[in-house]
């Protein structure tokens, strides 16, 4: 009898590569017999803490990345379409509020990460498939509703997402990724 390995997946919905990795590991977790622990974190903090630069800001990486993402999305069956203004979506708006929201969903969820998984997927879909906002409370609410949360749960999570407790939890998770040696996310 084999024991299940625990795999921690640190991710941020700003990253299309994270979405691809997230979908693959979710899809095959039972086949690989792993216990998946979702760890929503802030990629901007990891980049800053590690001294790394986002691939979109390095011209040669950006050229490669656009072709690579297209091929990977088709291969993995993920409906990835870059937003009309990638720079605005990734760097001006960012995902700090979205990742705090996901962290709050995880804080409220009892008995697993099913809601966290669904909300994360809906946020990725909004930004990387539908070219929609993921920073405003109404946008977060719409994603959560599509993920199956009730209006009451959404209001609770929205309120919790702005609390110091959640800000600290997201910061601690981001620091944990750095302690593991992260310099980006999959």
TrEMBL record:
Family from the record: Belongs to the GST superfamily. Kappa family.
Protein name as annotated: Glutathione S-transferase kappa 1
Keyword set, alphabetical order: Transferase
Coiled coil: none
InterPro entries: DSBA-like_thioredoxin_dom, GST_Kappa/NadH, HCCAis_GSTk, Thioredoxin-like_sf
Organism, scientific name: Kryptolebias marmoratus
GO biological process assignments: glutathione metabolic process
Catalytic activity: RX + glutathione = an S-substituted glutathione + a halide anion + H(+)
Any Pfam family matching the protein: DSBA
Active site residues per record: 15 (nucleophile)
